[in-house]
């Protein structure tokens, strides 16, 4: 394998592109882990085979990005967030295998559309183009088997169940993708990659545990502050700690409209945005 020691001068892509490829790599790894876990848990024999193959292919994609990054003179960056962790922050834990499959359907359609767009970006390195094309072909296969599975569920349980789930996930995906796209030229600044840096959601959970005296396992992204036992004094302390941690200032109106940790995370992200774009 190539050496990991690469001087910045030998990097054949921009730092922003290196971040993006590292984000792709990390999201492929996250996909492999999710599919692998489902493969371990399912009682469905056919699904077990499909999910194991899917896991193997996503792991291979993570490796393809690793090799590509090395080939263009980089080394994969440690990325604290993935596309899937963003979904998680928006939607919480999927409650069933069906939800995971529906989400992966939306995600993989997005990946294919995004990779096609990336292929057309001017100045894209030939090695990156080659990997994008290769992965598009695989993702189309993933979309197909998952769609067959969702169609079978719709046929036996009613179309509306599957359709509504897909529509809900599509809305989340549109929101998330819009956020990512907005920062296309400065992804690292917007999403943070420094070693040890935590996502907004993780940091908020930590603050909630500290200030509200709750055990981390109880604190989900969609926990309402009231559920966490926050009385008005706790709430003031919590909001102050969040403002300090993220260097933001909430208005009174903000405080009235934020009911869950996810609301707080979304507002923090909005408040930080102008500073990061400037
Ligand atoms: Fe993939
Ligand atoms: Fe995939």
Would you mind describing this structure in some detail?
This protein has 278 residues and is mostly helical. It has two domains: 8-185, Ferritin (Up-down Bundle), CATH 1.20.1260.10; 204-272, Orthogonal Bundle (Non-ribosomal Peptide Synthetase Peptidyl Carrier Protein, Chain A). Helices cover 72% and strands 0% of the residues. It has helices at residues 15-41, 45-71, 83-91, 97-120, 126-157, 159-182, 187-191, 200-212, 232-246, 252-257, 261-277. Helix 1 runs antiparallel to helix 2 (45-71) and helix 2 (45-71) packs antiparallel against helix 5 (126-157). It starts with 14 loop residues before the first helix and ends with a helix. It binds fe (ii) ion (2 copies).
Considering the chains and any ligands shown, give keywords for the structure.
single chain; 278 residues; mainly alpha; Ferritin; Non-ribosomal Peptide Synthetase Peptidyl Carrier Protein, Chain A; 2 domains; 11 helices; 72% helix; globular; disordered N terminus; binds fe (ii) ion
Strand content: under 5%
Percent of residues in helices comes to over 70%
How many β strands by DSSP? 0
CATH superfamily of the largest domain: Ferritin, core subunit, four-helix bundle
Specify the CATH architecture of the largest domain.
Up-down Bundle
- Helices and strands, in order, run as HHHHHHHHHHH
Class based on secondary structure composition and strand pairing? mainly alpha
CA-based shape: globular
List the domain count as a whole number. 2
CATH class of the largest domain: Mainly Alpha
CATH-defined topology of the largest domain: Ferritin
Instruction: Give the oligomeric state of the chains in this entry, treating copies of one chain as homo and distinct chains as hetero.
Output: single chain
The molecules bound to the chains, other than polymers, are:
fe (ii) ion
Number of helices: 11
Radius of gyration: 20 Å
The major β-sheet equals: none
Q: What is the straight-line distance between the termini?
A: 40 Å
Uncertain spans: 1-6, 193-197
What is the overall pLDDT average?
84
